[in-house]
Amino acid sequence: MCTHDFAQNDTQVVDQDTKDMLNRRRMIQALAAGGVVSVASPALSGCATNPETGSKQFLLIGDSQLSEMAATSWAEAKAKIPTTTDPRYTTRLKNIGARIAQGANKGSETWDYAVFDQDTKNAFVLPGNRVGFYRGMMDFANTDDQIAAIMGHEVGHVTGKHAAERVSQQLGGQLVVAGGSAIAGSQLAKKCRKNAEAQIGGRGQVPNRELAVIQRNYDRCMTSAQRNTQYLNAALGMGFMIGVVLPYSRKHETQSDLLGAKYMYKAGYNPYEAVKLWEKMAAEGGSRGPEFLSTHPDPMRRAEDLHNYIKYQEQLGSQGWESIDMPEES
Q1: How far apart are CA 85 and CA 79, in angstroms?
Q2: How far apart are CA 143 and CA 147, in angstroms?
Q3: How far is the C-alpha of 294 from the C-alpha of 302, rounded, in Å?
Q4: What is d(CA 180, CA 42) in angstroms, rounded to the nearest whole number?
Q5: 3-state secondary structure (DSSP) of residue 13
Q6: What whole-number distance in Å separates Cα of residue 241 and Cα of residue 243?
Q7: I need a surface site. Which of 13, 34, 164, 184 has the fewest CB within 10 A?
Q8: Pairwise CA distance, residues 258 & 55, whole Å
Q9: Where are the beta strands (DSSP E) in the chain?
Q10: Can you say whether the dihedral through the CA atoms of 244, 61, 262, 90 is positive or negative?
C-alpha cells in the first residue's frame, strides 16, 4: 500500500518553481468542494515501487520536469558562488563521480559537477544529475574513499527519486492543510449565517436599526471565524512539520547513506570509509538540537547504521550488495 505522507520539500528553489507551476487556488477550491484534482499524468499520479530502495512512492511530478526547474537554480548557484577550476579538485571529483555513477548503473547518463570555492563543509545534488561540492567538504573528507562516500550519498538521492517525492509531498501537504482550514472556515461561516438567519426569523421585513445590529453581530462572527481558521492553519502546519516532514527527511537521508555505501562497494571503494567519515563528522561536534527535531540523523547514528548495513551485506556473501536491507532487530 502506498502511504501518502505529505511532507515539505526542503529545497526552496524547487518549492518556489513548483508553486509557480501549479495553480494552488484552483486545487484548493476543488478539494474544499469535494472534487478530485489531477496534477499530473496518470503515470505519475499513483504508487510505484522504487527498485533501488524497495519503497513505494507517490509521485506527482516527473524527473524531466524537475530537471528543467533545477537548470536555472544550478546556473544561478554557479554565477553567485565562485567555483574553482583547480584540477586537484575538479578532475578528482569528476573521476570519483564517474566511478560512483557506474556503480549505480547511471554511468551512461550525463552528469554535471561543480566545486564551489568556499570552506563550507557541504555537498548537494539538484535534479538532472547536477552535483555540487564545496572545497571545504573535499578538504575535510580528504581521501578518495570518503569523497566517494559523499558522492554516493548524493547519487542515492537521485536514484531514490527523493526530489520528486519531496515536491509531491509538498504539493499534497499544501492541499491537505489548505483544504482542512477551508472546510473548517466554511463550517464556522455557516454558523455565522445561521445565527443571523435565526435573528431575522421568518419576518419579511426587519427594521433598519435592528438589521444594523444583526449585521454587526454577523461581521464579528465572521472575523472570529477567519481568526480561528488562521489558528487552525498554523496548528495543522506545525503538525505536518513535526509529524511528517522531518521524519520523512531523515528517511531519505538514511536511504541515501545506505545506497551510497552500496555504490561505493560496486565502484571498488571501501564502504567502511563512509563509517569513518561520519565518525569524523561527529567528532567535529557543534551544537545540535534533539534528533527528533532535526532534519538529518545524528552523525553517530549514521555511522552505526552504515556499519551494521555493511556487516550485514558482507554476511550475505554473493547475495549481498543488491539492496539496502538492514538486519532485523532481535
Answers
A1: 14
A2: 6
A3: 13
A4: 25
A5: helix
A6: 6
A7: 34
A8: 14
A9: 47-49, 56-58, 112-116, 123-126, 130-134
A10: negative
- Angle, in degrees to the nearest 10, between helices 162-200 and 12-21: 50
Q: Is the pTM of this model over 0.85?
A: no
Residue entry with cell 536491507: 325
Contact 326, 308 (CB under 8 A): yes
CA 186, CA 327: separation in Å to the nearest integer?
50
Distance CA 80, CA 62 (A): 28
Burial of 322 (0-12, 13-18, 19+ CB in 10 A): exposed
The pLDDT of residue 39 = 40
Tell which residue, 72, 259, 58, has the closest CA to residue 170: 58
Residue numbers in the chain where pLDDT is lower than 70: 1-46, 171-187, 204, 228-248, 286-295, 329-330
Distance of CA 22 to the CA centre of its chain: 18
Cα four-point dihedral sign 289, 273, 165, 126: positive
Helix (H, G, I), strand (E, B) or coil at 260: helix
What cell does 235 get?
496548528
Residues near 86 by Cβ (< 8 Å), separated by ≥ 6? 115
- CA angle, corner 206, sides to 203 and 209, nearest 5? 155
pLDDT tens digit string along 89-113?
A: 999 999 999 999 999 999 999 999 9
CA 165 to chain centre: 7
Specify the pLDDT at position 289.
Answer: 55
Report the phi/psi class of residue 250: left, alpha or beta, with left for phi > 0 and alpha for psi in -120 to 50: alpha
